Amino acid sequence: MNIRFYNGLICSMAKKIEITSDEEIWVKENKIAYLGPAKSSDFKFDREIDLKGNLLMPGFKNAHAHSAMTFLRSKADDLPLMDWLNYKIFPMEAKLKSEHVYYFSLLAILEYLTSGITAVMDMYFFQDEMVKASIDVGFRSVIVSGTCGEDLNCVKKMEQDYLKFNKIHELISALIGFHAEYSNSNEMLKCISQVAQKHKAPVFTHNSESKREVDDCIKKSGMTPTEYLNSLGLFDFGGGCFHCVHLSENDFEIFKQKGIAAISCPGSNCKLASGIAPVSDMLNFGIKVALGTDGPASNNALDMFREMFTVTALQKIRNADAASLDAIKVLEMATKFGARVMGLEDCDSLAPGKLADLIVIDLQQPNMQPLNNVLKNLVYSGSKQNVKLTMINGRILYENGVFNVSVDPEKIYKTVNEMNSYYKN
Amino acid sequence: MNIRFYNGLICSMAKKIEITSDEEIWVKENKIAYLGPAKSSDFKFDREIDLKGNLLMPGFKNAHAHSAMTFLRSKADDLPLMDWLNYKIFPMEAKLKSEHVYYFSLLAILEYLTSGITAVMDMYFFQDEMVKASIDVGFRSVIVSGTCGEDLNCVKKMEQDYLKFNKIHELISALIGFHAEYSNSNEMLKCISQVAQKHKAPVFTHNSESKREVDDCIKKSGMTPTEYLNSLGLFDFGGGCFHCVHLSENDFEIFKQKGIAAISCPGSNCKLASGIAPVSDMLNFGIKVALGTDGPASNNALDMFREMFTVTALQKIRNADAASLDAIKVLEMATKFGARVMGLEDCDSLAPGKLADLIVIDLQQPNMQPLNNVLKNLVYSGSKQNVKLTMINGRILYENGVFNVSVDPEKIYKTVNEMNSYYKN
């Protein structure tokens, strides 16, 4: 489909983060064909969409999630962390069936669409199912392996999947990763490092989410998790770490030197009482920071608006400074920085040749009025209710509250609820 | 209108906070006429609404706002508190015109409806305008005076308004209040205390929002703001305090003894970097706690879903305990406790004879699935997008994203934007 968007505000995120009101955007097949003043086109549009003054911008990038954990949403809340993990999450995950993961992933993807999220970096079990769900809906996923344990065959599988997923479909890409320092044997981590070195690939993992995890690593190795993982060569080609709540000064140095990105998950860090990540300190230090929702068992929403408000709210509290982490920086984290961390440079902004992953924000709702500052409204008073349209790879998948996908949402809800009875705790 | 709601889940909040699935609710004129199993009615329904499995519950009560501050939304963000107040907010408020306040209030009320908020306790300038806006829309407002300064005539006006607003319209009630300890002379506070004593009325005010405010009061009077205000007899008939971020142990005792409620505004406290209120400590101590959005200049959303998540998120961080402030307690704060603090016992729950202020929550959206625990979903993954219907005083004012009010939202947006150019800063 070729689509023309006109008569709206555009925040391309291409250079400066600012809004233009005299431009239009043309989508040709799956790419942006033109962004600029109105002019005549040399191809025919299948649809011309009058934005009516609303805002068009790049879609949000969810840089950390375990999508299929939808099945655990509200199944175990308001519990101390270790009870939550050991008595609720792990036992239920141990029963997990691959055919269920397909439906649990579909449910998450629908939620992403309602929040204007156009891509996710996903780490979970049975990754073929998330890949299938993404392709079936038309959603963009970056699959990152969550290798853990001590069985070296898992590293082989990790490498196979990495190669397989990177050529399976235009909507899918893959990154090398492992669950965490504390959930892998030293042998495993060395093996993963070898694979990363072989492919000159960045590596992604959970890191320094809880204080206990850091203390345990120091006790065991004399190093912080960042120092320890780095000593194994795991970050020689960069990568990213999820959470990064408890980092040392030297960890900051390593992040900067190795070009490691921090993926902050403020909602999850609150809900599991992990702490407040030093996001503004990291940004000021020159570390790249992206945003993630984490999984729906620990957040429990997959809503980038909530993450955007929460991340800046927490920084203002942490630093006792209302000027901390301004809205524009938050928007960059949620879009451009996220895309780059995920290896999706083609979706980091709106410009000719970039992939058409974009959203339209409804400004004709009371929470977005008056239009004193549209971008600040987006972060400080915006809500997923303002998402009027979500387009991925040139296809409109969600518009005016209606899904335009090949799966039936009502049927997914029904199926997920039925499957869920299997995971009684 | 007489309306029957059937075939849904109901959380009446009447006794235990739980959900029933085999009951229906009848609304007759402006009250709940029946709640129980299906049976034949002795009156005719104008409309019968099939809830299709969705959730019906009492509307949210916003126990603290300055509604008309919509005009300042996103006009001054990411600034240190004192710069924000002295160079942005106060100068613009000094120019405020009463006829503008009507439209700024209308805009806030529309936003309340989208978030399922059915009543607000409002403190601002030109209160006749908020009263008029509320009546024109059909919204329920509790008007609390924000007396400040040193002109004792303002206290006379306060008393006159208190009496006037309490008999002006069934949707309007009034409470005695003043802006804050630091913004009133000692003479003023004594005078306000006399009026409260005369009417045996509870008193409401901002209290201990910032550390500096507390330190200044101690320096001046040797007492915390709570101790000082209490020493003047201001809380002899109870009342409530907005924010309560920085309270001492003795303040806790006074709150409990005098039956003073705390109205927590977590979003605003973050955005202005005021700190995290000791909400779970207050609740454990037996202090009543309600929730408020504060004004749209300092939040900037008027969204009770965001406040619900933020208040529990912050407690979990503050106490380093994921079990802090569970979702059910948060729901009570946002509905029942709020109503009682605002003097709206008639709207605190759904039961025969209570006023019909209720909302319907759409569960057929991905963020509310699966239905492992509907009430936890509401707090942890719910969003204003799930508000399917908002009824106040028996009238449906918002349904499926459409306002059913006598004012035209598009016209309000336009008018507010036009008026706003007057407040350039």
Describe the structure in your own words:
Two copies of one chain form a homodimer. In chain A, helix 8 (249-258) links the parallel strand 12 (239-243) and strand 13. Chain A folds into two domains: 2-59 and 348-403, Urease, subunit C, domain 1 (Roll), CATH 2.30.40.10; 63-345, Metal-dependent hydrolases (TIM Barrel). Helix content of chain A is 37%, strand content 20%. Chain A has helices at residues 81-94, 98-114, 127-137, 153-165, 186-199, 211-221, 225-231, 249-258, 266-271, 279-285, 304-318, 327-341, 374-380, 409-420, and strands at residues 2-6, 9-10, 24-28, 31-36, 47-50, 55-58, 60-65, 117-122, 140-144, 172-180, 203-207, 239-243, 260-264, 289-291, 358-361, 387-392, 395-399, 402-403. Chain A starts with a strand and ends in a 5-residue tail after the last helix. With 425 residues, chain A is of the alpha/beta class. The interface between A and B is large, with 72 and 73 residues.
Write the layout of secondary structure elements.
The structure is a homodimer of 425-residue chains.
Chain A: E1 2-6, E2 9-10, E3 24-28, E4 31-36, E5 47-50, E6 55-58, E7 60-65, H1 81-94, H2 98-114, E8 117-122, H3 127-137, E9 140-144, H4 153-165, E10 172-180, H5 186-199, E11 203-207, H6 211-221, H7 225-231, E12 239-243, H8 249-258, E13 260-264, H9 266-271, H10 279-285, E14 289-291, H11 304-318, H12 327-341, E15 358-361, H13 374-380, E16 387-392, E17 395-399, E18 402-403, H14 409-420
Parallel strand pairs in A: 1-5, 2-6, 7-8, 8-9, 9-10, 10-11, 11-12, 12-13, 13-14
Antiparallel strand pairs in A: 1-3, 3-4, 6-15, 15-16, 16-17, 17-18
Helix pairs in contact in A: 2-3, 2-14, 11-12, 12-13
